[in-house]
TrEMBL record:
Protein name: Uncharacterized protein
Superkingdom to which the source organism belongs: Eukaryota
InterPro entries: RutC-like_sf, YjgF/YER057c/UK114
Stored Gene3D superfamilies: RutC-like
């Protein structure tokens, strides 16, 4: 078992350097100022997202935070691993559809608890289990699109196989529960 993104900055840097070398990830491109200025909905609830100066560039590229500080007495919910299986039990044909479906399952669990349409915006911690040998750049792209303005603390773990042999991704998240969500 190896680390895709790795919990340490040096692991992330090696990940980026390797995937840039093989052409999976382009050179760092700074996000436009209007995207950097976008505040996460979680910041309005007192959560603080922290990136060290020497880690900001990789955090911008991969759309994550190195650390998330919760306010005192914050309520949280842990969502167990969700995969991209369709309602009929089949696995989508494309990886992007499978990844999107896994995010949809996370979103559906949050909505079942009482979160609204912006459910994924409350995720502050995400762990991605990705089948070995898979290019993680598509996952980064889908996560950036689905998480929108929030940047969860993120760990990517490369695994040999998921329980269903045709699946490539499992997502486990932790979300902040605002007072408006009555569980």
């Amino acid at each position: 078992m190896g680390s895709i993104f790795g919990p340490a900055y040096s692991s992330r840097l090696l990940f980026i350097a390797y995937h840039r070398r093989i052409g999976c990830i382009p050179r760092f491109q700074k996000e436009p100022d209007h995207q950097r200025a976008m505040a996460s909905i979680l910041e309005k609830h007192g959560l603080k997202f922290v990136n060290p100066a020497d880690g900001q560039e990789v955090a911008d590229q991969l759309h994550f935070s190195h650390a998330v500080i919760l306010p005192p007495n914050a309520r949280t919910v842990i969502i167990s691993g969700q995969v991209g299986i369709l309602p009929d039990g089949s696995v989508p044909q494309s990886l992007e559809d499978e990844y999107d479906e896994a995010f949809t399952h996370v979103e559906n669990v949050l909505r079942a608890i009482g979160f609204g349409e912006d459910a994924l915006e409350y995720v502050f911690d995400a762990t991605f289990f990705l089948k070995g040998g898979m290019d993680p750049s598509l996952l980064v792209e889908v996560a950036r699109r689905r998480f929108k303005s929030t940047r969860p603390a993120t760990v990517g773990v490369e695994i040999a196989q998921l329980l269903h042999p045709d699946l490539h991704l499992e997502i486990k998240v932790v979300a902040y529960m605002p007072d408006s969500v009555a569980a």
